[in-house]
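Bug #2210: token dump truncated for Biotin synthesis protein BioH?
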Amino acid sequence: MKRREFVMVAALVVAGCAAPMAAGGQAFRSERITVVTEGSGPDVVLVHGLGSSRDVWRETVAAVPGYRYHLVQMNGFGGTAVGGNTSGLVAAPVAEEIARYISEARLQRPAIIGHSMGGHIAMSLAARHPGAVSKVMVVDMVPFMAPFFGGPTATLESVRPVADQIRDRMTASDAAARRSTTEATIATMIRSEGRRPEAVRHSLESDQSMSARAMHELITTDLRPELSSIKVPLTVLYVRSPAAPITDEQMDAFYRASFAAVPQARLARIPDAYHFIMWDAPERFAQEVRSFLGG
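Reproduced locally. Full output below:
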């Protein structure tokens, strides 16, 4: 192969990694998400959480080679333009866009891993598009968040006023208050102090209105009635937050009850880690991902 031809081929490979191709050879375009690919092998879709970035998967991708990772970035988070996420719901339409990406890119039932809000998205996608994915990993997320905000007897109706208040407070917060709240919140989400500044930056660079609307949506959405539609293997990794006023055993019971509709679900509580398990316990997390993908 001549040098010029080699350079052209290399350029096409790089372009293909940066802009995944949809059916018909057209680059996938969306107003809600962007996707980049890394590596080669079986397909794995990675979805980050609220106010975060696909950069949270950086170490995981490096630690678990042998797969073609499709790293989703939700528009409006982590310093990206809001695009089509300017108003209304966020998680539900993003899940539909990821399903469209899987279809248009002609992925053959990839695995999907979602952290936090990304876990919510992964569950809803798998439930609403049963043939789209081959297996699901949820990282520290439950199908119904209301009990965290309204107590064990919370319902959608009882928690809605609380969710409204949280949304309105997040929307109206000035820069100083937002930074203070974000730093305090991230301190309860990441045990490794050295990793906290990056998460704080991602959150502060995220669109304020979008973050507030997404939080409201997560609190007021109950995916439990849909979980029985998930027939593929499901792995759920979770922690007991230092701020949680319950014991490890009570958290275990809560997760078992939350996923009771999915008998094939494998639940594993990760000790010595907070919400960002991939950063607080990278070796254990990589081990869990290898087992999940290789199983």
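Output looks complete on our side. The domain at 33-143+222-294 is CATH 3.40.50.1820 (Rossmann fold). Marking as cannot-reproduce; reopen if the truncation happens again.
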